[in-house]
Write a sequence for this structure.
C-alpha cells in the first residue's frame, strides 16, 4: 500500500510524476473534471444566490470509483491539477467528492514537469485557493447564464444547433465589423516617385520626400507632373547624410496568445493545434532511459506572464556564453508586468535551456519538434543581447525637390543569431546597404518612375491577428482563445478563405439578433470591464455572487423582452439553378454546420447532397472535357480536381493556371513559396520569378 495518493488530470502526467516521486506515492488521473453543471438544464439557481448544481460527469463513474478506492487506502491525498483557475476548480471538486478538508495542505502546484520542480513542489503544499475557485466558478456560471438563455431563443427563432456566448459573440462581431469596413471602404488615389541613383558604379534606390524642405504627399498625376517639372537635369546634390546606430531588442518569451500567433505565422498551426501539441510537450515525452525517461519539455502553456525564474536565466546564460560568447549575453531586465496579467506562473519556456532542439529531433514528432524549437529559440533569444543596426539616411536635392534613400546593415546580430519574431505580412529584415556618400557630393538619377497606388482596405482577420486583437483589447483570457475560435467555426458562423475569417449569412443573422436584444453581450467595453470584474474575484477584492447578480438583473429583463419581441427568421434555401440528377427536382443551397452545400429541394423524399464546387477557369488537362474545381480534403486542405470525378481522376495539390507552359506546352501550376507564389511547369524545368 502506498502512503500517499496524488491526483493529476491526465494519465501521461500521472506516469511521469509517479516515476519522480518513488514507491511511496501512487499517482492517479481524474481525466479532467469529475463534476460539472448538467448539460440538460441550466444548473444554476437564480433564486438562491446563483447556487450551482454540480453532478458527476457522465462516463466518469469508473474513474471516480477508482479514485475513492485509492483514497481510502492513502494516509494523505495531494491534489496536483494544473496551476490555473481551471486546475484549482478541479482540485476543489475532488476535495468535495473525496471528503478532503479544503483548508488542509492538500494542494500541490508546479509550473513544469521535471524531477526537481516536482520534488520541490511537494515540499510546499498549500490549501485550496478559494478565490481562484470562485473566479473560475463565476466565469462558468456567467457563461452558463448567457449561453443557456440566449441559445434556446436562437433555436426557436432561427434554427436548432445555434449558440451565443460571452466571448464568442464579441469575436464574431469583430469579424463582421471588419467585413463591413472592407465592404464600405473607398480607395483613395496616391502616388509615389521612385528613382534609381548612380554613384560611380554603385546603384541604390531612393524615393520622393518633399519640396522646399517640407514633406509632401502626392494625391494625383497632376501633382506628380508638377514635381517632376521642377527637376533640372538628372544630377542630385547630397544635402545631408545622417548615420546612427540603432538597437533592436528581442521579443519577450512566449505567453499563450503570442505562442498561438507565432505558431500560426511560422508553422501554419491553428490555435487549437498549437495548444494540443504544447500540452503533450508540457505533460512529458519519453526521451529514453539515458536522457531521463518521460520528461516535460516546456513549462505550463496557459499563462499571460512573461516572468522567468532565476534558475532558467542562469541555464540560458551558461548556454549562450558557451555557444556564442559573452558579448551575446543580455541584461536580463525584468519585463514590465502587463495590467491584469496573472503572475502565478512563468512564461512558456523550455524546462531546460541546455536541451537543444537538435538533440530531440529524432525523438519528437514533426509537429512537437517544430513547436519545441520555436519555444526554445524564443526563450533563448529573450535572454540575449540586442541586435545593433547601422542605419543611414541620405537627403538628395534637385532644385528644391528632395528624395531620400535609406539603408541599414546589421552590425551585431545579437539575439538574431537565434531567432527573429515573425510578422503578419511575412516581411524579413534584410541588409539594404548604401554606397559611401558624403555631403556636398553628387549622384545621378538613372531613371525616375512615378507609381500610382490606391489605399487598401483593412485585412480580414487571420486566427493570429484575431487573437492578438482580442488580447490587446482585453477580451477573453489565455484559456479561451483557442476554444472561442473553434466554436464560431463549428457553428458555421464564419468560414476560412485563404486562412482569413469571413462571416457567413448565418453568423451575421445571429450577431444582429444578439446585438438588438443583448447589446452588452457583444459590446467590447462591457466585455473588457466584465473580465476585470472576474479577475477581481481572483484577487479577493470582490464576491462572485455580487458580480453575477449585477450582470443578471439587467440581463433577465432583456431576456423577457427578447422572448416577446424577437421575430422568427427563416433562412430560405437559395435556388442553385441546376436540377437533381436523382429525381429531377431543383437543387438548392442550404446552410450546414460547415457552411453552404447543395441539396435536393425534394428532401426528405430525395436525400441527394453535393459540396459546392468552385471553378478556377481551367479545363481539365487529363480528360480535356471537365473543368478543374477547388475541393477540400478530409483535413480541410485545399486541392484541385476534375469536376467529372470519378470518371476522371485528375488531382493536384498545386493550383493549375489557364495557360500552357511556353517551353513544352504542359500544365503550369502555382506553387506557394516563402518568397511568394511561383509558377512552375509540371513536366519540364520552366519556372517564373515568384510574385510576392
Amino acid at each position: 500500500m502506498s502512503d500517499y495518493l496524488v491526483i493529476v488530470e491526465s494519465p501521461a502526467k500521472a506516469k511521469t510524476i509517479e516515476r519522480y516521486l518513488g514507491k511511496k506515492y501512487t499517482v492517479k488521473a481524474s481525466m479532467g473534471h469529475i463534476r460539472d453543471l448538467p448539460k440538460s438544464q441550466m444548473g444554476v439557481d437564480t433564486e438562491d444566490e446563483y447556487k450551482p448544481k454540480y453532478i458527476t460527469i457522465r462516463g466518469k463513474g469508473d474513474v471516480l470509483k477508482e479514485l475513492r478506492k485509492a483514497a481510502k487506502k492513502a494516509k494523505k491525498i495531494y491534489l496536483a491539477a494544473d496551476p490555473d483557475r481551471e486546475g484549482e476548480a478541479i482540485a476543489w471538486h475532488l476535495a468535495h467528492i473525496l471528503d478532503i478538508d479544503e483548508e488542509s495542505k492538500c494542494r500541490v502546484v508546479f509550473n513544469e514537469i521535471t524531477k526537481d520542480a516536482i520534488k520541490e513542489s511537494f515540499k510546499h503544499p498549500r490549501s485550496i485557493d478559494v478565490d481562484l475557485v470562485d473566479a473560475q466558478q463565476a466565469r462558468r456560471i456567467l457563461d452558463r447564464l448567457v449561453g443557456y438563455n440566449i441559445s434556446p431563443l436562437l433555436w426557436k427563432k432561427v434554427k436548432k444547433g445555434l449558440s451565443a456566448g460571452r466571448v464568442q459573440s464579441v469575436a464574431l462581431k469583430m469579424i463582421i465589423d471588419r467585413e463591413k469596413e472592407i465592404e464600405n471602404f473607398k480607395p483613395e488615389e496616391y502616388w509615389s516617385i521612385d528613382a534609381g541613383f548612380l554613384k560611380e558604379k554603385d546603384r541604390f534606390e531612393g524615393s520622393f520626400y518633399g519640396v522646399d524642405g517640407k514633406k509632401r504627399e502626392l494625391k494625383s498625376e497632376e501633382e506628380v507632373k508638377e514635381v517632376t517639372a521642377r527637376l533640372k537635369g538628372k544630377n542630385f546634390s547630397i544635402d545631408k547624410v545622417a548615420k546612427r546606430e540603432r538597437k533592436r531588442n528581442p521579443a519577450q518569451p512566449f505567453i499563450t496568445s503570442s505562442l498561438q500567433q507565432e505558431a500560426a505565422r511560422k508553422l501554419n498551426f491553428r490555435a487549437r493545434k498549437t495548444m494540443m501539441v504544447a500540452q503533450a510537450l508540457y505533460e512529458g515525452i519519453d526521451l529514453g532511459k539515458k536522457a531521463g525517461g518521460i520528461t516535460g519539455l516546456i513549462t505550463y502553456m496557459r499563462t499571460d506572464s512573461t516572468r522567468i525564474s532565476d534558475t532558467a536565466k542562469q541555464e540560458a546564460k551558461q548556454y549562450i556564453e558557451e555557444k556564442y560568447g559573452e558579448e551575446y549575453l543580455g541584461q536580463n531586465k525584468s519585463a514590465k508586468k502587463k495590467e491584469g496579467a496573472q503572475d502565478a506562473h512563468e512564461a512558456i519556456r523550455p524546462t531546460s535551456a541546455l536541451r537543444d532542439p537538435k538533440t530531440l529531433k529524432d525523438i519528437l514528432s514533426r509537429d512537437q519538434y517544430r513547436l519545441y524549437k520555436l519555444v526554445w529559440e524564443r526563450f533563448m533569444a529573450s535572454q540575449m543581447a540586442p541586435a545593433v543596426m547601422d542605419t543611414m539616411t541620405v537627403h538628395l536635392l534637385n532644385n528644391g525637390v528632395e528624395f531620400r534613400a535609406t539603408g541599414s546593415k546589421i552590425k551585431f546580430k545579437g539575439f538574431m543569431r537565434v531567432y527573429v519574431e515573425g510578422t503578419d505580412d511575412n516581411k524579413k529584415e534584410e541588409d539594404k546597404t548604401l554606397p559611401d556618400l558624403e555631403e556636398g557630393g553628387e549622384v545621378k538619377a538613372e531613371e525616375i518612375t512615378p507609381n500610382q497606388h490606391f489605399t487598401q482596405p483593412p485585412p480580414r482577420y487571420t486566427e493570429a491577428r484575431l487573437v492578438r486583437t482580442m488580447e490587446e483589447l482585453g477580451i477573453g483570457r489565455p484559456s479561451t482563445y483557442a476554444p472561442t475560435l473553434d466554436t464560431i467555426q463549428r457553428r458555421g458562423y464564419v468560414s476560412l478563405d485563404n486562412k482569413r475569417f469571413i462571416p457567413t449569412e448565418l453568423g451575421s443573422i445571429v450577431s444582429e439578433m444578439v446585438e438588438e436584444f443583448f447589446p452588452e453581450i457583444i459590446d467590447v467595453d462591457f466585455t473588457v470591464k466584465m473580465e476585470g470584474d472576474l479577475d477581481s474575484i481572483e484577487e479577493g477584492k470582490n464576491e462572485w455572487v455580487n458580480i453575477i447578480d449585477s450582470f443578471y438583473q439587467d440581463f433577465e429583463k432583456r431576456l423577457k423582452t427578447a422572448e416577446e419581441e424577437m421575430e422568427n427568421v427563416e433562412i430560405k434555401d437559395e435556388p442553385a439553378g441546376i436540377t437533381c440528377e436523382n429525381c429531377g427536382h431543383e437543387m438548392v443551397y442550404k446552410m450546414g454546420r460547415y457552411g453552404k452545400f447543395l441539396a435536393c429541394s425534394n428532401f426528405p423524399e430525395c436525400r441527394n447532397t453535393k459540396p459546392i464546387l468552385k471553378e478556377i477557369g481551367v479545363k481539365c488537362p487529363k480528360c480535356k472535357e471537365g473543368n478543374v474545381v477547388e475541393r477540400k480534403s478530409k483535413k480541410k486542405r485545399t486541392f484541385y480536381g476534375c469536376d467529372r470525378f470519378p470518371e476522371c481522376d485528375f488531382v493536384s495539390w498545386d493550383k493549375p493556371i489557364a495557360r500552357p507552359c511556353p517551353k513544352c506546352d504542359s500544365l503550369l501550376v502555382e506553387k506557394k513559396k516563402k518568397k511568394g507564389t511561383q509558377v512552375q511547369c509540371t513536366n519540364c524545368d520552366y519556372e517564373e520569378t515568384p510574385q510576392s
